[in-house]
């Protein structure tokens, strides 16, 4: 399997997928990843770290968003949006690609 994780990967995915079928190599392009976030501290810390993927991260909070003040939540949402990510309620999570613990 070849996993594409760069800015223009979506443009290459179709052609590489056709070539992969001929050679028995699976090519995968995912435009987003699902992250389970265990606490407000983990959310803040995760958004401070450098983003190592071009994918949109859907950040599913496994805690009550009311644990954050309105100002804290707005600041974290602004930081997430700058990186192309979204902060979402945890009950919307279906599959997890990674976990931010802490």
Walk me through the topology.
Blueprint: E1 2-4, H1 9-23, E2 27-29, E3 32-37, H2 40-48, E4 56-61, H3 70-82, E5 86-89, E6 98-100
Parallel strand pairs: 1-2, 3-4, 3-6, 4-5
Which descriptors apply to this entry?
alpha/beta; 6 strands; 102 residues; 36% helix; 2 domains; elongated; two-stranded parallel ribbon
Give a written overview of the molecule.
The protein is an alpha/beta fold and 102 residues long. It folds into two domains: 1-30, no CATH class; 31-102. The chain has three helices and six strands, in the order E-H-E-E-H-E-H-E-E. The strands form two sheets. The protein has a four-stranded parallel sheet with strand order 5-4-3-6, with helices on one face. Strands 1-2 form a two-stranded parallel ribbon. Helix 3 links the parallel strand 4 and strand 5 (86-89). It is elongated, with a radius of gyration of 16 Å. The mean pLDDT is 92.
Question: What is the H/E order?
Answer: EHEEHEHEE
Q: Globular, elongated, flat, extended or rod-shaped: what is the shape?
A: elongated
The percent of residues in helical segments reads: 25-40%
Q: Give the count of helical stretches.
A: 3
Compute the number of structural domains: 2
- The fraction of residues in strands falls at 15-25%
The main pleated sheet reads as: 4 strands, parallel
Q: How many distinct beta strands?
A: 6
The main sheet orders its strands as: 5-4-3-6
Give the mean pLDDT.
Answer: 92
What value does the Rg take, in angstroms? 16 Å
Low-confidence stretches: none
Terminal CA distance: 32 Å
- Structural class category: alpha/beta
């Amino acid at each position: 399997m070849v996993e594409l994780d760069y800015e223009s990967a979506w443009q290459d995915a179709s052609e590489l997928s056709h070539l992969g079928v001929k050679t028995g190599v699976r090519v995968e392009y995912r435009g987003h990843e699902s992250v389970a976030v265990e606490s407000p501290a983990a959310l803040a810390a995760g958004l401070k770290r450098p983003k190592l993927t071009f994918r949109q991260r859907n950040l599913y909070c496994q805690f009550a968003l009311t644990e954050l003040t309105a100002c804290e939540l707005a600041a974290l949402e602004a930081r997430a949006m700058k990186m192309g990510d979204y902060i979402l309620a945890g009950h919307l999570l279906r599959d997890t690609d990674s976990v931010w613990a802490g």
